[in-house]
């Protein structure tokens, strides 16, 4: 256990002091350091707590590598306007990868931001990952379809008599739609933005 010696020297302790702490004689402790003898689990736990390290570290084992997750490709379906609504585009221009755990939570697509109404958080050229859903709560960032063919990304604010699609850039006006307009135009929620991927 070469790391045991390293830790002891780090903390400026003697073999005698560590042996006394563990309740063993110095010869036994020396065998722990040289690897001639391996301490039992109880002793390892005490040493781990004493030095503030894991048992794995004490034993010299490398940290386990995180299990690599398989990615799932989701299509980037053109641009979504961070400004005034623009014609909805559904041609695939690229792909983004999400992990399998996320993919199991629903159906996803991606869109590229065009415009600056959602700055400073969302900038032109950024990509957003969107979970398909027809409803959303106040405060959610959503992709909404207006007039059936114009898509926009905005912060949703719900009212008793309608909704407002809110920009975060103060130079743009909020877009209010009454319940009647929501039905007549129509205005529909395509999905909720769950991740922003800034493109520098």
From TrEMBL:
<feature type="domain" description="HTH cro/C1-type">
    <location>
        <begin position="4"/>
        <end position="58"/>
    </location>
</feature>
<dbReference type="InterPro" id="IPR001387">
    <property type="entry name" value="Cro/C1-type_HTH"/>
</dbReference>
<dbReference type="Pfam" id="PF01381">
    <property type="entry name" value="HTH_3"/>
</dbReference>
<dbReference type="InterPro" id="IPR039418">
    <property type="entry name" value="LexA-like"/>
</dbReference>
<dbReference type="Pfam" id="PF00717">
    <property type="entry name" value="Peptidase_S24"/>
</dbReference>
<dbReference type="InterPro" id="IPR015927">
    <property type="entry name" value="Peptidase_S24_S26A/B/C"/>
</dbReference>
<dbReference type="InterPro" id="IPR050077">
    <property type="entry name" value="LexA_repressor"/>
</dbReference>
<dbReference type="InterPro" id="IPR036286">
    <property type="entry name" value="LexA/Signal_pep-like_sf"/>
</dbReference>
<dbReference type="GO" id="GO:0003677">
    <property type="term" value="F:DNA binding"/>
</dbReference>
<protein>
    <submittedName>
        <fullName>LexA family transcriptional regulator</fullName>
    </submittedName>
</protein>
<dbReference type="InterPro" id="IPR010982">
    <property type="entry name" value="Lambda_DNA-bd_dom_sf"/>
</dbReference>
């Amino acid at each position: 256990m070469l790391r045991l010696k390293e830790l002891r020297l780090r903390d400026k302790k003697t073999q005698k002091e560590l042996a006394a702490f563990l309740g063993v004689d110095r010869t036994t402790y020396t065998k722990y350091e040289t690897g001639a003898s391996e301490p039992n689990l109880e002793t390892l736990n005490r040493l781990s707590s004493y030095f503030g390290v894991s048992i794995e570290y004490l034993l010299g084992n490398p940290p386990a590598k995180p299990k690599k997750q398989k990615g799932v490709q989701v299509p980037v379906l053109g641009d979504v306007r961070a400004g005034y609504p623009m014609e909805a585009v559904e041609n695939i221009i690229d792909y983004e990868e999400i992990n399998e755990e996320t993919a199991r939570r629903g159906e996803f697509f991606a869109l590229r931001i065009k415009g600056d109404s959602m700055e400073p958080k969302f900038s032109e050229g950024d990509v957003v990952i969107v979970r398909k859903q027809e409803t959303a709560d106040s405060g959610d960032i959503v992709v909404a379809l207006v007039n059936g063919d114009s898509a926009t990304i905005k912060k949703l604010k719900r009212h008793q008599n309608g909704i407002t699609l809110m920009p975060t850039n103060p130079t743009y006006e909020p877009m209010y739609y009454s319940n009647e307009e929501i039905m007549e135009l129509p205005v529909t929620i395509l999905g909720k933005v769950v991740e922003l991927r800034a493109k520098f």
